[in-house]
Amino acid sequence: MAANPPVIRFRDVEQIFTGNDGRPIHALTGLDFEISRHEFVSVLGPSGCGKSTLLRLVSGLIHPSAGAVEIYGMEVTEPRDEIGIVFQKPTLLPWFNVQNNVTFPMRHKYGRVHKEDNERALELLDLVGLADFAQKRIDELSGGMQQRVAIARALLLDPDILLMDEPFSALDALTRDEMSFELLRIWSERPKTVLFITHSIPEALLLSDRIIVMSERPGTVREIIDVPFARPRTMQTLSDPAFTELANHIRGELFSKPAAA
Amino acid sequence: MAANPPVIRFRDVEQIFTGNDGRPIHALTGLDFEISRHEFVSVLGPSGCGKSTLLRLVSGLIHPSAGAVEIYGMEVTEPRDEIGIVFQKPTLLPWFNVQNNVTFPMRHKYGRVHKEDNERALELLDLVGLADFAQKRIDELSGGMQQRVAIARALLLDPDILLMDEPFSALDALTRDEMSFELLRIWSERPKTVLFITHSIPEALLLSDRIIVMSERPGTVREIIDVPFARPRTMQTLSDPAFTELANHIRGELFSKPAAA
Amino acid sequence: MKNIIRLLDRFAPVMAVVCVLGIWQAATWLFAIPSFLLPSPTSIVAAGFGVDPSVWIGHIWATLRVAVMGYALAIAIAIPLAISLSMSRLLSRTLYPMLVVIQSTPIVAVAPIIVVTLGAGDMPKVVITFLITFFPIVVSTTTGLLATPEELIELSRSLRAGRTREIFHIRLPYALPFLFSALKISTTLAVIGTVVAEFVAAEKGLGFFIAFSTSFFKIPQAFSGLVILVLLSLTLFRLVGFVQKRFAPWSLPKSER
Amino acid sequence: MKNIIRLLDRFAPVMAVVCVLGIWQAATWLFAIPSFLLPSPTSIVAAGFGVDPSVWIGHIWATLRVAVMGYALAIAIAIPLAISLSMSRLLSRTLYPMLVVIQSTPIVAVAPIIVVTLGAGDMPKVVITFLITFFPIVVSTTTGLLATPEELIELSRSLRAGRTREIFHIRLPYALPFLFSALKISTTLAVIGTVVAEFVAAEKGLGFFIAFSTSFFKIPQAFSGLVILVLLSLTLFRLVGFVQKRFAPWSLPKSER
Amino acid sequence: DPVTFMIDWLPAGDKAPIYYGVQKGIFSDAGLDVTIAVGRGSSDVVTKLSTGAADVGSGGLSALLQAVATEKAPAKAVMTLYTKQPDAIFTTTDSGIEKLADVAGKKVATATFSSSNVVWPLVLEANGVDPSSVQLIKVDPGALAPMLATGQVDATINWMTVAPAFAGPMKEANKTFKALPWSEYGFDGYGLSIFTSDNMISERPEVLKRFLVAYKTATEMAIKDPEGAAAAVKVMVPEIDEATAAEQWKASIPLMVNDVSKKDGIGAFEPELLKATWSWVAKSQGLAADALDPESAVNRSFLK
Ligand SMILES: Nc1ncnc2c1ncn2[C@@H]1O[C@H](COP(=O)(O)OP(=O)(O)OP(=O)(O)O)[C@@H](O)[C@H]1O
Ligand SMILES: Nc1ncnc2c1ncn2[C@@H]1O[C@H](COP(=O)(O)OP(=O)(O)OP(=O)(O)O)[C@@H](O)[C@H]1O
Ligand SMILES: [Mg+2]
Ligand SMILES: [Mg+2]
């Protein structure tokens, strides 16, 4: 894996927002790491530490206040073609039904939706368990259903790089597990580089090659953990004692600092 | 506890929505249970099984298609005073800053905000870890921060009945634990009846007196589980073997049916 | 009970109109309001039937034609303009003041220029109607285009779909409630605009008819023209509502779908 | 580079105006456009200075006073009206058509009634201005009030705060972009309305001045009145933008805060 | 030959000759294909003529003199129609206004942009009345008759030709109508005249001549046949009320056929009266008496 050139590279990135009151909000500082080709990297960190900001930097939607984010060795100055994103909010379009929301990237990027795209959309909806809801309108879906539509949408164009911001947060344990394994299956069948933000330590361990653990605001990388478990991972992996141990280590890592809190 | 009259009572409740295409969506069926005074009840169930709908029925925002929901023995026909709600989406008002969003129930219900309310809001913001953000605007907050503001808002009026729809879903493990214990502390200091929707089995076990486990759409009660652990519960409770056992039982319960999926 | 409410809901508008007409008629009788001041509904109707139907049709057609053409022209120009304004801050800062200038110029003052430049016929009237009609559409649509939530824009940007698609797939659909609100306002403005144009330069049309009748102090006849005019406006207004309901139901509030 | 863009951005509006004036002036020279058709900017300025400042002030004050009073009245009536319309479907179905009727009635046609009923003075003019101004505010505000997302309404309902607070704490703030868009449209309508009113009944005011100058074939002088009028409109329009920026910045799109 | 003739205000009985001429084939007999356009006031007609939107038109001579004096409008008057000024005071028998001087202290309404307004103070002064003693109310023309009928004002200022239209409201209000023409109180000069553009004069003088001859014939015939004149208008403007139109036309005849026209002949510009017309304009507009030689605004060459 080290032989591959880094797909995503953060070079000493710093992000400072200007609040509406004019005061600076120091969101990220000193981010410096690389993500290799077809790597599955999770990001863990306290709420408000800058995970979504990190993802938006990779996507090219915002630009770092200092340092640079590179994709395939090129500085990111605007959004790129090969990226698919699941935002933290579902961000669906109320004027389309579920299926058209899923095919939206095709329509929006290439101007039209082919028959195959509609078929693929239905497949993806089946995959996220919403085959029956293809013709429904967005406001008839539950919160978790909307999130799943957003996941299906991000997968439609089969992107090289997949950025996912807490995609399973509104899902129950069962659906979550199912979706995790589906994601792994897709990832292994059509390899892609995945940056996956989550609050679930087991999920991060189950899915990723490496886990970036972030510290509180201003967010920075506290530790990058290699996940040693062999692939394909299954339900069994969860009961591996090493799994629990690593989970506890990360837990300790995340829970350590804020003794003051 | 059985001596108290039921605070919330579902009498054979059924909920059928009419979709935009005119076809009925059968969301809930045959709900029939009681929640006693000062009980802490969690609801677990697959995504889209009707949890939020159940909560909206209790809140009086919607009315059952059949059967009746009663609070303190009276049929719910409209929203009631003693209820505080955390919705699944944060639902904050972009034209107020964080503090004013928290004091909003006071302003909205009684027309004005007293000094004490503002103080209480700051306390609550401190409790959810957002003391520094009282003067910020909503769009400057991360997803998890917005959710915490919504929690603080629901607590402001110190309601008798607290309805919470996945309040901790966007929070990291540490914050989530902290918030759970804070919630328990508030609940024991000022007893209230809590209906708590979550996807986390440990969370449900840690917090509740009873857990309602729901089945897939059309949602109905699959099992109601009494949680036997003594209070006050602490981090130790989590390592109790009975805890793991019960968690596994619920997990099995939730994971059992959809063999077809 | 529910049925009564439904009936009431259904016939309330009609009943309200009947009521108003009744009060009006009664008032003209009771207070002996002279017909040259405020003619009674019956005298208006009588005056209306006193005019030859073919004359009516000629005037209605002249007004309707100009109003619809001006309205269509306004939409055809205002929406692209709103899009340009929303896309470029520079353009918006440059063009907006000029639009305000155009909008706030009283047409009567520049009518001679318009008529002389565009000659006789419908053209100058269409242009005058257009000038009066287009501004609300521009302002409202621009506001809607700019009000699109950041997150939807980011979705579009992340797909690198380009500004055009961002406009047509995201901003315009989002702006539809704003746009339709303006389109509704503009129907009546289109009719008013045509009438103003007909006051300034015309030998036909309801505006001309009204001005003409007034110049002879034939007020009931003028009012009958007014009634037709108002019916025209109402029809256009309703038509816009119908189009919205039919083709963009999601842009309506839930209660009105 | 960035500085140049900033400079451009800053002075673009001014430059655009200068450009337009330049082209205009050149055109009047080159094509020898007769001044009674389209006077050149210089002749307009000359004519403007030919009028006594105190005369100007008298006319400007008359127009401004009526425009502002009519505008204020329109806001004062339109917003409560919009609230009522948004609160009751019945009311909305009953009142809306009547508002369309009022809006689409050409003022000139009912001028006699207004003048005879309200007499001379500012009253009839204020009423006319009001009639022309209030409709967009009603339509836009109603649209905005009804467009408020369901979830915010549910938040309000869950607090049992009552309809009034729902309106004032939730719906109205949400409708502000709609409202301000209408308020912007209405500034120019208020000025136009005043001018129309001054055509119908006045012995003072810029509308009177313009029509008066035109009827005596003093076209450059009429245009100088027009310029003042347009400046008035621009000022009011800007003022609304300023108020929005100052008191409700969140109702503006991010790019314009 | 095509000729566009622009009447100076909305069609009415007093505009009958042009309709009569078209209907009776007087113009077509002269080889003219006449189109009637409707102007909005005398100055509108001057503008339209100057820009070529119309070839010939009718309008108050004062407006033309004014336009030529201040804007060098390329238009000329080529024939007179009214040899007396049409302006008048309309009042009711119960108003106590018997002569012009009686308006002192009364309420008088006038159309906001009536050309009469400017000379009004001069006419008053000429009759020894202080203009400030009259309470002048300016309103929409449509409001004049209602205001007089409802008694909100004691008098209005109108052209004589409008008088028949007042009949309806007056009858409804049970009042008796009375008119005091200003021409009887020292206001002299030419009123309605035929204008044409300098272009027309230099490029199609022969057509213009034929037109004027035909127009004169039409006028003379219409004067003899008022009912026929009204009927001709009715044919082309079906909205009009034929009886009122006839009344209007009859009301305008004395303005054309009177001692002045008898002396000078129909259509002629007599230099003294022309000068008088100009001096009223100059005085009322605050223009120097020598700002214009009124002769330069007329062209008599088309009158036989
Ligand atoms: N307004 C509505 N119109 C039509 N159908 C609806 C509506 N609201 C909810 N539903 C349907 O009712 C079912 C239950 O929805 P609900 O939001 O209660 O689910 P939930 O249990 O909260 O799911 P989640 O965990 O994903 O939030 C879903 O199938 C949904 O499609
Ligand atoms: N547009 C913005 N303007 C100002 N501050 C911002 C903005 N966006 C984010 N921030 C600040 O940056 C910090 C990081 O935000 P971010 O959304 O990246 O957090 P996060 O790690 O995704 O949190 P969560 O897990 O709650 O979603 C927060 O303190 C937030 O207040
Ligand atoms: Mg986030
Ligand atoms: Mg839910």
UniProtKB/TrEMBL annotation, chains A, B:
Entry's transmembrane regions: none
InterPro entries given in the database record: AAA+_ATPase, ABC_transporter-like_ATP-bd, ABC_transporter-like_CS, ABC_transporter_ATP-bind, P-loop_NTPase
This protein's record includes keyword Repeat: no
Occurrences of domain ABC transporter (ranges): 8-237
One Pfam family here: ABC_tran
GO molecular function: ATP binding; ATP hydrolysis activity
Entry keyword set: ATP-binding, Nucleotide-binding, Transport
Keyword Transport: yes
Family: Belongs to the ABC transporter superfamily.
Matching PANTHER family: ALIPHATIC SULFONATES IMPORT ATP-BINDING PROTEIN SSUB, TAURINE IMPORT ATP-BINDING PROTEIN-RELATED
Name of this chain's protein: NitT/TauT family transport system ATP-binding protein
Origin species: Breoghania corrubedonensis
Lineage: Bacteria, Pseudomonadati, Pseudomonadota, Alphaproteobacteria, Hyphomicrobiales
TrEMBL record, chains C, D:
Regions annotated as coiled coil: none
Listed CDD domains: TM_PBP2
Native organism: Breoghania corrubedonensis
Keyword Electron transport included in the entry's annotation: no
Predominant localisation class: membrane
Record Gene3D superfamilies: MetI-like
Name of the featured protein: NitT/TauT family transport system permease protein
Location in or out of the cell: Cell membrane
Pfam family, one: BPD_transp_1
Similarity annotation: Belongs to the binding-protein-dependent transport system permease family.
